[in-house]
Amino acid sequence: MVASILGQTLLRAAPLAGAGALLVSSTTKLHAEEAPAPSSQKLPIYPLPEPEVKLVPTQTELERQIGSARRGLQGATKETREALSGSIEKWIGVERKIEKEVKSLVPADEPLTPGLLYVGVATLTGSVFTRFRSFPIRFITPPLFLVASLNYFQPKLATNLSSYYVELEKAHAPALTEQRESLVSAFRSSIQSASHKVEEAKSGAERGLRSGLSEVEKSTGLKVGDVLGSAEVKAKEAKIKMQDQMRAV
User: Fold this and answer.
1) Which of 10, 67, 141, 227 is most buried (most C-beta within 10 Å)?
2) Structural domain containing residue 74
3) Low-confidence residues of the chain, pLDDT below 70?
4) Is Acyltransferase a UniProt keyword of this protein (predicted)?
């Protein structure tokens, strides 16, 4: 009886044992598939460095506005500085050009003093002499005295100034140049005709005077012609002496 009970127990435990063995085998197989494969990379001996942390700067709206205003102010300041530098360079160029023109006009062999002082005195004298005259005379006389005195005391400077004025006039006002040249030619022709008439009148007067003196000499026997000739010689000598003194001054 005991043997029969033991046999039944074994028969009942046999399926359970088979199921357990099957479960163990399947579990072992599952663990064998999930196990990680061995790696060929070796672990480092020293500890790895910490990863670098990068900070990305971000600007606020106020910072962007301030930066934009600062860049605009810098650009305006740079433009102003460049414009000022350009103006200074232009002014320096104008000064050098004027200096060059003045040096070219002033003759090296003709001193400016005291000739310019005499020119100024002569111009003021013309304005003083005509202070009680009509307005056209008071307006025209000082420039005429200026031109005449400049041509007398500083002839080379007057010639250079005249040439420079003619060049400027031809460059900027050619119509005015033509009118001026026509007026100058008409004035010169009138002066030449007047001088010719004066010389003719002078020659006629001298001939009449000499014929009269010859008649007096014939009638009286006095040598009046010699006196007239000596007077003319003395007058010419005095005139030449006065011209030399004026040039020396």
Assistant:
1) 141
2) 62-105
3) 1-41, 213, 216-217, 221-239, 241-249
4) no
Number of compact structural domains in the chain: 3
Can you read off the two tokens belonging to residue 27?
A: 């579990």
- Residue 130, in any domain of the structure: yes
Give the model's pLDDT for residue 117.
92
Q: Note whether residue 80 is domain-resident.
A: yes
The amino acid at residue 170 is K
Provide the whole-model pTM.
Answer: 0.46
pLDDT digit string (tens) for 73-84?
A: 999 999 999 999
In the chain, the largest separation of any two C-alpha atoms, in whole Å, equals 224
pLDDT 10s digits, 181-202: 888 888 888 888 888 888 888 8
* Within-domain flag for 141: yes
